[in-house]
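Whether sequence alone determines local backbone shape is best considered at the level of individual chains. Part of our work consisted of pairing the sequence of a single chain with a tokenised description of its backbone. This step matters because it turns folding into a mapping between discrete strings. For completeness, the protein is quoted in full, as a sequence line and a line of structure tokens:

_____
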Amino acid sequence: MRVIIIGGVAAGTKVAAKLKREDRSAEVTILTKGKDISYAGCGLPYYVGKVIPDRDSLVVNTPEKFEKLTGAKVITGMEVTKVDRAAKTVTAVDAKGESSTWEYDKLVVASGASPIKPPLPGLDLPQVFFMRTPDDAVNLRAMVEAGGIKRAVVVGGGFIGLEIAENLTSMGVRCNVLDMAPHVLPGFDEEVQVFVENHLAEHGINTMTGTRFEGVTGEGKVEKVQTDRRALKADLVVLSIGIRANTAFLADTGIELAPNKTVIVNDHMQTNDPDIYAVGDCAMVTNRITGAASWSPMGSTANITGRMAAKNITGKDAVYHGAMGTAVCQLPELNAGKTGMSEAQAKDAGFDAVSVIMVTDDKAHYMPGAGSFIIKLIADRGSRRLLGVQVLGRGSVDKVVDTCVAAIAMKATVDDIADMDFAYAPPFSTAIHPLAHAVNVLMNKMDGVLETMTPAEYAAGAAEDYKVMDVSLQPSIEGAPYVDLTKIEGEVDGFAKDEPILLVCAKGKRGYMTQNRLKYYGYTKTKVLEGGLSFNEVEVEE
């Protein structure tokens, strides 16, 4: 069996390696346009920031090493320009412009995606960078290390853009992040995005959202970045606007493409031609929760789908159940992770979504390095099925995210998760796991035990007719009456029992405990502000 694989980064090399393990007799050939294969694209920002010291660490395998390790053949500098399905051949052109034809029994399209370069002025200046290959990262770091780079503009507020901004900031470069979208961190809910934007500003990274990038100006070098709002002084620009699937060579083949030009595949990673498969950034998969088409240009998805395609090519029956938008990102003194659906996405998909934002310890509070998690959970009100999670914190947010990946994939309800036997020891977690704690809070809300006002509702003005009661451990809100939870033994002076009252504390826990006690004493219109002062900015007009 002759297998041609177009592309040799994450997905292509995974297919090749697994194929040779499944069937040693298969003739597997990778044709790849670049000179590097199997490199850590997700690690590029950390090379820029010197977290990864040398370029060789980014390259998992050289072509020669990969050939010896797997038995697959690797040909670099070879761009596939045509696929002939009837003849079962591909045509490729090498660096010298010489054409060659390759026969296949099975073909795998793993051609990846390329950075979007808009037709705007100044993008060919030497201080304008993209971030897609090891050489991109090497050249960017070298320019910063050479000196003279004081201000940078990163265009694009997605994960790579924010990670680049973080690493440039760590090298003493002042960064502005531009994005056309209303907020950075796509896929998170708005109130979480706003919290992150404020956190970035506190750490020297300014985000300019809702801003159109219009080009770069300068005489032989970058001097300013033009936007629809104003010009920004800059010494360097990194474009992280997005990527576009490398599928132009498939245009006249009859292979079905999605509107964004990714290749449509089934749950076995097959195209509409059963002998042609597609994996990685160039493939359109499905959402595991809804079954709808979903693009998941992530290294994790590339590796998973590559492995499954290889098994199916060799006669196995490996079903890919879909992606869930799982992501995690390191920012200055804050990690952000998510999986499943945001509240907005859940509502758009027709779910009766209910959510909660809560703040909890990430490990035993008395342990060195203890901090907090801000967790937002989203569930379906009727079925009580968990739909999504978003987590912020300085600690291991990925452990909460990954647990929710398993729960959502298994269609678990919040009740299923509440009494799971999570690992506990003071250096690692709390006696009631942070996720279980968040689930308990959401269940209390769903069951009517806890009545809250969400940060989104508060930001939209829902507290206008409410009187704020400061129930923090110590008085914390200027202009708000302070009430000590431990001294509530009946009616509270200054607060009528039928008066709308917003209970605000540091995290939300004392607010809940206060509400519980006030209800007992006949208060009927209290709300707890989710996330408390840890997540919300509360001001009281005197």
Notes: The longest helix spans residues 299-313. The radius of gyration is 26 Å. DSSP finds 14 helices and 32 strands in the chain. The chain has a mean pLDDT of 96.
